[in-house]
Amino acid sequence: MREIKVNELKEGMTTAVDVFSPKGQLILKRHQAVSAFDIAKFGFYNIASVYVEGSSAQEKEEWNKKYAIIKEKYRDSIDNLHEYMNDILYRNIIPDKNTLIRDSVEIFDRFETSYELFDALQVLKQTDVSTMAHSMNVSIIARLIGVWAGLDTEKLDEISMAGLLHDIGKFKIPDEILLKPGKLTKEEFEVIKKHTVYGYEILNNFKILESTKRAALLHHEKFDGSGYPFGYTADKIDDISAIITIADVYDAMTSKRCYRDGMCPFDVIEDFEYDGISKYHPKYIGMFLKKIASSYIGSTVLLTNGKKAKIIFVTEKYSRPTVTLLEDNSVLVLKDEKDIKIAAVL
């Protein structure tokens, strides 16, 4: 199975999952040959892409080759970012924007779909939980949010740079606190919170974009005033900082830590749904949740009842999509199921 953009569909391709309109109307059932009329309908209903059947063995081989290239590039990029950080922190030199973001943008551009992006990052982050890897992930995810929001290339590059440098202040936090395997004490957490101010102070020594400095300072602020370091509310938080905040929280929660495993993406989506509108920029958080949940359409998942299923449709409750059970192809609407949800993406 593979995701194909509607403008790249060809007659005769076979749908792998049911195709729904953005409002939930069934347009074409799975296992159906796509006609020219179907392609026109997809465009009329603003369907951006559909999943079609393909050679699973061939797809797996192609993805493994692509992933190997991305993995090597990712490792090199982390090494390069570490050198850039050393330049900034110890040599008082900061690379120009294009040099700094080059690796991040190149990795981003290698992904053909958002599913590929999240799938690869989910695997890569299990092998590297450093601040460097987190910063690279945030830069890539934040850029995707910017693309989804329709921002121009100049603004996307600003977002990429802000993501890479948002946590630079953590280098001034003692390792015994930053890398502590257990729960932080109240006093230790107060020290951790200072990384936002430290980051701003470090970057303020250089002639760089103000948005990069502000993202370092404000990426833990929340729209309802519950964040830090200042307890700012919506009117004082710029858009780029708001985007970095969402990407930062998503990557942190889905990443493995020494004291816990990474959370399932749909558990993170559920957490965002719980307080997203009050704590995060409403324009970006709503779009982010819908898009990221939709990225997993066609994916196989494990449910909390132990059964395997395939996601076929995203409802208005993004953390509880509609699935088909693999054992009998029956449809299960998870938003109507009180005790069943997605436990893991397989």
From TrEMBL:
EC number: 3.1.4.52
Record keywords, A-Z: Hydrolase
CDD domains the record matches: HDc (cd00077)
InterPro entries: HD/PDEase_dom, HD_domain, HD_GYP_dom, HDIG_dom
Domain HD as annotated: residue spans: 131-253
SMART domains: HDc
NCBIfam families: HDIG
Name of protein: Cyclic di-GMP phosphodiesterase response regulator RpfG
Organism: Agathobacter rectalis
Source taxonomy: Bacteria, Bacillati, Bacillota, Clostridia, Lachnospirales
